[in-house]
Amino acid sequence: MTIPTKGWAPGDYLLRLDGGTPATRQFVPLTIRSTSFAGRIVLIVPDTTWQAYNDWGGHSLYIGPDKKFADRARAVPFDRPYSQNNGSSFFDSDTLPLVALAESMHLPLGYATDVDLQRLPPSVFFGARAVVSVGHDEYYSPGMRSALTVALAHGVNLAFLGSNEIYRKIRFASTPTGPDRLVINYKNKTDPIKIPSLVTTQWEQSPSNDPESSLTGLSYGCAQKRFPPLTVADASSWLFAGTGVHNGTVLPQVRGQEFDGIRTDFPVPRSMTILFHGHATCRGHTRGADSSFYTTPSGGSVFNVGAYFWVCALTNGCTVKMPPAASKIVTRMTMNYLRAAALGPIGLSRPANDTVGRYYPKLPKVTSGVHP
Amino acid sequence: MIFSSRRTYGASMQMKWVRMAASAALISIVAACGGTPTTVAGVAHQADLTVQQTQQVQSPGGAAQGPKVARATITSRGAAAGHLAAVANTPVACTTIAPKWDAVAQVLRPAIEGYTSLDSAAPGTPVGLYVSAVAPRYQVEAYRMGFYGSTDACLTWTSAWTGRPPAGSGAHRTRRDERARRVLDAFDDDPH
Predict the structure, then answer these.
(1) What is the ipTM of this complex?
(2) What residues of chain B lie within 8 A of the CB of A174, using their CB?
(3) Which residue of chain B has the CA closest to A48?
(4) For residue B63, which of A77, A60, A84 has the smallest C-alpha distance?
């Protein structure tokens, strides 16, 4: 069947396949992307990560039919249904709450997917007000990351409303259905490709040695059974306006099972405001757990919440329940951000006050640029 | 779609399920991937020849219409029986033998599944929709998801039923519906 999309408003769609009874219904996600992103806040559906976790047919990039990591797929195609949530993957919990909130604010919005960052010319994002990675957005090709890096240099505001962002490196290949339909990721040096820059170990690992923090501001920590709280570090930031928080206010649960933080041995873009700060332990090492906002000389800015449950917290619809107050604070901060981003490069109007040194005194006192 | 460490990149297993005994027709519309049917190592155990034929096609990254994990478990059991049938003629004692095992196994399979030829498309770009369904007919509705006041969804588009609408669906076929249905059917083999 062919879906005629003529006249459809840009947006994120769910196709409902209906065999005639409630038991014979499943969903297929489809984004109708905006014809132009100029002047818009572009909401990115994190669908390369959806495919990474999609175990339809028995394999994902994490497990094989025996549920073991060793038997995982090293490449997963878009040519299959999503196994989770009746075919809708993580759209309902990890993407829709932000889309609905942004639409309720009547801001100029654009719609695109992870794969659009790869397949569209990077210049299409230069005129955007912001590009927002919505939810858990872990899997990035060099082309995807480059599109965001170049947009930032053009004064575009970026936001990462999740954690573990741009941690895994991928490359794309074609399937008979079309280009960029296959997501390749080995997670270690068994990747047979001979071109070092395309090897799909983690971005922070050899041979890339290019931690995601140089763009996102933060680095991935590790998975946690007891979620590190979000503890307010700088209540004076405009992002907290109207939330009523003070330094030390704790938001439980929102951080979720995967956290990000500053690593002093990895690049730290400046000037950076640390919004939330705490600690967690990874393999015996104490690590900072942070949320950050930094601005660049271009005026572009990067907001990284470093919290796995940020988007589902908007509707308090996460797999864990949180105090309604935490949900409200997350919602207000997100609205503060979207309103500011819609006006233009935040770095020009509200350059970040650098507070990194308060928590990481080992880092040099610089006011802008990326260290090292 | 399976790409394991033991398999060459780009090799895939395409499984087209053919119902042999069940009453419901299985509609399986899969991508035309080309390639020569061949045996892929390590998958024979998934075929329970008493209830279904499994067709394996090696193709570069093609569409997979195969069993989910639960289905694989079921067919593995069936395969064990198939192997043993060659060496033992006395079945294990059983009060109530499941007469239509494929129908029992079928409940573990989503009755309808699909994916699109593009994950995103500019408005007006025709998007291929590949569907595998147990139901003899199906209909597609497109919901735009976002802020609609008290709800999150806006019904944007409804396809015609691919066959006669089910009783009680409220769908009355008109001449216009019939024409739309024929147009949709014409696309079934070639979504582009």
Answers:
(1) 0.96
(2) 61
(3) B119
(4) A77
